[in-house]
Structure formats: structure tokens, C-alpha cells
Amino acid sequence: MSTVLTMTDVDLVRGNKKLLDQVSWSVNASERWVVLGPNGAGKSTMLSIAAARLHPTRGAVEILDETLGRVDVFELRPRIGLTSAPLADQIPASETVLDTVVTAAWGVAGRWREQYDSDDEQRAHQLIRDWDLQKLVDRKFGSLSSGERKRVLIARALMTDPELLLLDEPAAGLDVGGREDLVERLNELAASPTAPAVVMVTHHLEEVPPGFTHALLMREGSVVAAGPVGEVMTPEVLSETYGLPLKLVRVGQRFAAFRQD
Ligand SMILES: Nc1ncnc2c1ncn2[C@@H]1O[C@H](COP(=O)(O)OP(=O)(O)OP(=O)(O)O)[C@@H](O)[C@H]1O
């Protein structure tokens, strides 16, 4: 099994605050990880390092057999698909769905004078079909619903056929129907043998697709637990992670958590 991401004793310090504290974690190509933890736990910071957008203050990070700090991140980034709120904010409201997806080939947000070959156009159209966006292909990004935008952004993240896909709160702001639709699509992606390794940050256990194999739980910049979902998604670990007594409910392969009375 090949390793796509390894963090060893990673610290990230800003001012006198440790955003990440001795984080060690690794992801294999066939794994699908969910990252959970309270607000401010350091989930997005950790994902930004995994996306080669941030460098650690201390520690070692290997991404796709390259060492952060010794690799040209502009060559590495196309091999990593990323969706996040800050990236979504960079897409011009007037950009069409097709252009939002295809421009990922050049790593730009907003089509200008770049040339796209027919392989790029075909791949963008294929992803638009895969994510059920055909009817929206000429619609402007700014006119889409939250759920439609999330699907466009995931299609865009997959445009470069990445070896690692990082999703930062992909279901944030969706209603129950939109969430369930996205969970089902992510579940299908997780099951695909051709899919990249996936890491998804979320706040809600209901958003964890059943096919996700591993969980990383973080609190105050540190790892509380990391491992197969069946081993680490326990009431004890979740209670420690969120700092309150939690009851874990499992319905089939889905989860929900409630305060323990
Ligand atoms: N540049 C910075 N300088 C100082 N503190 C920062 C900086 N960037 C982030 N932080 C702090 O680091 C902590 C971790 O932030 P991060 O966004 O990684 O957490 P998170 O787990 O993703 O939170 P949330 O679930 O609320 O999105 C937070 O307390 C945040 O305020």
C-alpha cells in the first residue's frame, strides 16, 4: 500500500500560539479519512499543510513522495485536489460552471487567455456529467445554490486527476436533502477503485459517508486519535475530542452524536 501523506511531529506556530502541536499522521492511497474536532482544533490548518499551501514551523511533511520545503509547490499542487471556503471565494461569480471546472487545469480561478486542449475540455465535461451538472454547464457560478456549488467545486478539484483529494467542510451550509445527496456521491467516490485518497474535514458525524475508512480526531492542535473508523469512533474518544460527554448513535454505517445526560 503506498503512502500519499505523512506528517511527523508537525508544529505550526503563529505568534505565541501553537496551531498544531506534534501532529503525526499518515494516509495511504486506498484510505478515505474524515477529520473531526471542535472549532479551532486546527483541522483546516492541518489540511492547508496537506495541500502544500502552508509550511510547518517544525516537523516533516511528505506529500506524494515529495518533501515539503524541498519541492516546488507549484508542481506539487496540481497533484492535490482541494475544496475549501477560501478557494470557493476566489471563483468569480460570473464564471460559468464549465470554466470553473476547466480552469483548474491551469490552477487559476477565472478563465482568461489560457489555452485548453481537447483533453481538458473532455475531462471537464466528463466531470460535469459525473457530478450531475450537465443542466448547469453554462450557468454562472454565482447563480448556483449551495449544493450545486459544492458539486462544482468537487468536480473542479478532480480536474487534474489528483492523487490526493482534500475536502474542507464540503457539506457546510447544505440542507438535509443536499447533505444526503453529497454524502451519497462521496460514498460512491470513496468506493471507486480509481478514486484518489480522500481526506474530508467535517463538523457533523452525519456527514461522514459510510465508505470512509479512517478517522482523525483533533483537539487544540493535537491528535486525540487516528485509525480505522470502527476503532476510533467511540463515545469515549468523541467525548475527549469535544470536551463534553457524548453519546454516539450508529444507524447502519452512519453516525450521529448527542450530549450524554
Ligand atoms: N494566522 C493565524 N494567526 C493566529 N492564529 C491563527 C491563525 N490562523 C488560524 N489561527 C487560529 O488557529 C486555530 C486553528 O484554526 P483552524 O482554522 O485550523 O481550526 P479548525 O479546526 O479548522 O476550526 P473550525 O472548525 O472553526 O473551522 C484557531 O484558534 C484560529 O483562530
What features would you highlight for this structure?
Rossmann fold; six-stranded mixed β-sheet; 30% helix; four-stranded antiparallel β-sheet; ATP binding; alpha/beta; 29% strand; 261 residues; AAA+_ATPase; binds adenosine-5'-triphosphate; globular
Helix/strand order: EEEHEEHEHHHHEHEEEHHEE
Which sheet architecture does the biggest sheet show? 6 strands, mixed
Kindly estimate the percentage of residues that lie in beta strands according to DSSP.
25-35%
Number of helices: 9
Low-confidence stretches: none
CATH topology: Rossmann fold
CATH architecture: 3-Layer(aba) Sandwich
Bound molecule kinds, no repeats: adenosine-5'-triphosphate
**Strand numbers in spatial order across the main sheet:** 6-7-8-3-9-10
Q: So what's the CATH class?
A: Alpha Beta
CATH superfamily membership = P-loop containing nucleotide triphosphate hydrolases
Shape: globular
Give the helix/strand class: alpha/beta
Output mean pLDDT: 94
Q: How many E-type strands?
A: 12
How widely separated are the two ends?
A: 43 Å
